[in-house]
Amino acid sequence: MDPHWDLIGNERAVRALQAGLAGGAANHAYLFAGPDGTGRAAAAKRLAQALNCTGAEPPCGECAPCRRIEGGIHADVQTLTIATDAEGAVRKAISVEQVREMEAAVALAPYEGRTRVVVIDPADAMSDGAQNAFLKTLEEPPPNAVFVLIAGNEERLLETVRSRCRRIEFRLVPASEIEAALVAQGVEGERARLLARLSGGRPGWALEAAASPRLLERRNESLGVARELPRLPLADRLDLAEKLSEAFKRDREPVMRQLDEWAGWWRDVLLAASGAGESIANVDETASLQADAGECDRAEVARFVQAIIDTRGYLAENVQSRIALDALMLAVPGRALSRARQL
Ligand SMILES: [Zn+2]
Question: Which of 21, 203, 223, 228 has the lowest CB atom count within 10 Å?
Fold first, then answer.
């Protein structure tokens, strides 16, 4: 791996970007497709550095433009993301107005560098109106401007938008690569192994968890709730749905992450139940997983895992969060053993 790009995994994506840059035929728009935490935003930053670097081997990481881009203070590199409203709640989409504002800025020549770079993250959160407004710019891109669209659900982008972007795919990274990268950064071996397994192939999560113990604590709390769900009376589960729905309106990401962790737990329960213990992600919780596997009906658990994944999808598509979460609470598996005892 080229140390200048400094990404964990996804070497193919990096090589494709490097080849494009080396060829001199710069693309005006890229689509960085793939799951969260796989290095898409980091790669976008490297690309912006490479396009503005004044060092001998771009992106050198050392010159003033590289350092300013790394610090997020370069005038020609901006990220367009979902805004918050006056009450501090996160809006549902990137709006037409936001796209127009960005386009007005991009129409100007670069201020301090060679190339303006606009990262749209998450691009799949652009409303249809915003995408249509953006399409005009994509069709006639201003000189010295490069757009990077970051998307986990690229099918939510209009075909007309997608077809004008050079698609670079980012994939989940094998745990062994993430573990090696963490160790290389000084994370102690056992902890590196655990974080790499828990990351589910997302180096971004592993790095964040290595830097912030709070992330692992939150994950433990979240798994505690995931385990507790079958034991909670329906009224309590619906209370929980209400709380999650309120939290979701304030900030989506923690709720999405919690749903991922719930899905991860119950998927592991299925793996434990089917004797595929070596594939378990939550390796530090094997005993609890085995215990849960012995208490629940496999088919019900499988349906619940699917329900969690579906709920996540509905939330991403802006359905009413309360309705989606209430429905999820109705899909929580029962406890086969306790029911059997009651018979
Ligand atoms: Zn540089």
Answer: 228
Tell me, rounded to whole angstroms, the distance of Cα 12 from its chain centroid: 19
**If DSSP codes are grouped into helix, strand and coil, which group holds residue 320?**
coil
CA of residue 81 to ligand 1 center, whole Å: 26
Q: How far is the CA of 4 from the centre of ligand 1 (A)?
A: 9
DSSP structure class, residue 335: -
Separation between Cα atoms, residue 271 and residue 283, nearest integer Å? 12
Q: What stretch of H or E contains 238?
A: helix 234-250
CA of 330 relative to ligand 1 center, distance in Å = 54
**Strand pairing report for 77-80 and 29-33:** unpaired
Q: Is 151 helix (H, G, I), strand (E, B) or coil?
A: strand
CA 76–ligand 1 middle distance (angstroms): 15
- pLDDT, one tens digit per residue, over 147-169 is 999 999 999 999 999 999 999 99
